[in-house]
Amino acid sequence: MLRLYDTRHRQVEPILPVGARVLRMYTCGPTVYRYAHVGNLRSYLFADLVRRVVERRGVRAVVCRNITDVGHLVDDAEIDPLGEDKVLAAARAEGRSPLEVARFYEEAFRGDTLALNLRMPEHSPRASESIELMVELIAKLLEKGHAYAGPDGAVFFDARSFSSYGEISGNRLEELRPGHRVEGVDERKRFHADWALWKPGRRELTWDAPWGRGFPGWHVECSAMLLAYLGERVDVHTGGIDLRFPHHEDERAQADSVVGHEVVRHWVHGEHLLFDGRKMSKSTGNVVLLSDVVDAGLDPLAVRLALMEHRYRQQMNLTWDTLHAADRLLRRWRSKVAEWAESPSQPIAPAADAIHRAFEDDLDTPLALRLLRDLERSPDVAPGSKFETFLHFDHLLGLDLSADIGRVPTLPPGAAELITARARARDAHDWPTSDHLRDALAKLGVHISDTPTGQTWTL
User: Fold this and answer.
1) Contact by Cβ (8 Å): 311, 366
2) Residue 110 clears pLDDT 70, i.e. is over it
3) Dihedral (C-alpha) 449, 452, 454, 459: value to the nearest 10 degrees?
4) Which secondary structure element, helix H or strand E, spans residue 433, and what is its range?
5) Which residues contact 400 (CB under 8 A, 6 or more apart)?
6) Helix 38-56 to helix 301-308 angle, to the nearest 10 degrees?
7) Cα(357)–Cα(364) distance, rounded to whole angstroms?
8) Which value, in Å, is the radius of gyration of the alpha carbons in the chain?
9) Which of 93, 186, 265, 297 makes the best surface tag, with the fewest CB within 10 Å?
């Protein structure tokens, strides 16, 4: 069974009990005020791999990934230094309505996830359509004494009422200083680390609530949606490492305080992605979108493959060179699979067990890819076995490795066996036999080229 690094417990653990047949997973979704860049998409690929690995073991995955279209305040000074709602800020900048902006970027995000072969979640609730859930959650927190309302209609969570606050990030309430949040010092708070559950004011994107017209704080939506769509026992909660604090700390405090027990069993986080050695941002001009990759003539799934060259919880430096290399590998593997498809089917290679173990050992995708490269080059594994093995693991890789089947010329009878024999001869440094087999293949109309990664052929 899949084991992942639990940020809260500080160790690698099985994410499901023995015999479990269903995985309930929540993934923090996008704030739809701009295009998602490849760094954002890395978090969703990691969640997709979790899903694929457990499903391969016969476990049914039930996934909720929200859409934040209201409530997420700007903390990026290059957009708005005053902390405006991100969707409202984008709408003002683009001269469109907030709804138009949100739906446009939501659809763009959906297109990116489809291009990356990310399986669709069972639930994709929008924050703007889940206000009632949030109001109900806030009311319960007030009733249980975990929240308090101010005279202006604002509602705050009482951080000191949740004794285990900080277990995810390692922060301690007593060590937090005033102004550690975007909101800064707020005289309405009883304690400087309290956070807003409901905020009064402004003219757009507001709703009626028992304590006054306003809008929800960002952290409320995930707690409300998680409980509504997945219930009070959730196996895994995923997100980027930057969400550990304050978002996930606040989310955990809210959900657990309402229910009265630990709701999420495992909190799992993906690391940052750098591009050319720097964090992606508008100010540095190194934001790379999936559309930029396609415009460069690369397959979008080359991004998926490139990201799997590093473990999800390792910081990764992506470059155009690594993207081009991933694109070449992807095209080569598709060509190889199409070539191997012409050979008689054989059982899956024994190396499959080690590859499965790599995936289940904290998603060690670099090792899994290395083992697949070894399998590709091995002269001791029949082409039909390579074909079955690569297609078997494509259910986890999600690279559409069968895409070229039927698109490449068919080898003449006996040529596949000669190609395999020549690869074996080259590995043994038996150059006379290698040359003899090259000549034999040439007589069949098959022209061989030797490359650093092995031999290729054309007709």
Assistant:
1) yes
2) yes
3) -20
4) helix 431-443
5) 117, 301, 334, 394
6) 80
7) 9
8) 26
9) 297
- Which residues define the annotated binding site? 28, 222, 247, 251, 282
Distance of CA 194 to the CA centre of its chain: 30
DSSP 347: P
E strand or H helix at 200: strand 195-200
Distance CA 235, CA 228 (A): 15
Residue 248 token pair: 């996930």
- String of b and e for 45-54 (b: at least 16 CB within 10 Å)? bbbbbbbbbb
Residue linked to tokens 């979640």? 121
CATH topology of domain 3-270: Rossmann fold (3.40.50)
Q: Say if residues 391 and 405 touch (Cβ distance below 8 Å).
A: no
**Can you tell me the distance from the alpha carbon of 167 to that of 311, in angstroms, rounded to the nearest whole number?**
24
pLDDT digits (tens, 9 = 90+) for 323-382: 999 999 999 999 999 999 989 999 999 999 999 999 999 999 999 999 999 999 999 999
What residues form the annotated binding site for ATP?
282
Q: Which residues are annotated as a binding site for Zn(2+)?
A: 28, 222, 247, 251
Q: Beta-carbon neighbour count of residue 412 at 10 Å? A: 15
Distance CA 28, CA 64 (A): 8
- The span from the CA of 248 to the CA of 372, in Å, is 36
On the CB side of 229, how many CA atoms lie within 13 Å of its CA? 23
How far apart, in whole angstroms, are the C-alpha atoms of residue 78 and residue 73?
A: 13
Q: pLDDT band at residue 429, thresholds of 50, 70 and 90? A: confident
If 0-12 CB within 10 Å is exposed, 13-18 middle and 19+ buried, where does residue 131 land? buried
Residue with tokens 């047949």: 21
Give whole-number Cα distances, 70 to 214, 218, 388, 403, 454, in Å.
Answer: 11, 8, 47, 40, 52
Query: CB–CB of 327/299 below 8 Å?
Result: yes
CB 390 within 8 A of CB 337: yes
Report the distance separating Cα 98 and Cα 84, nearest Å.
13
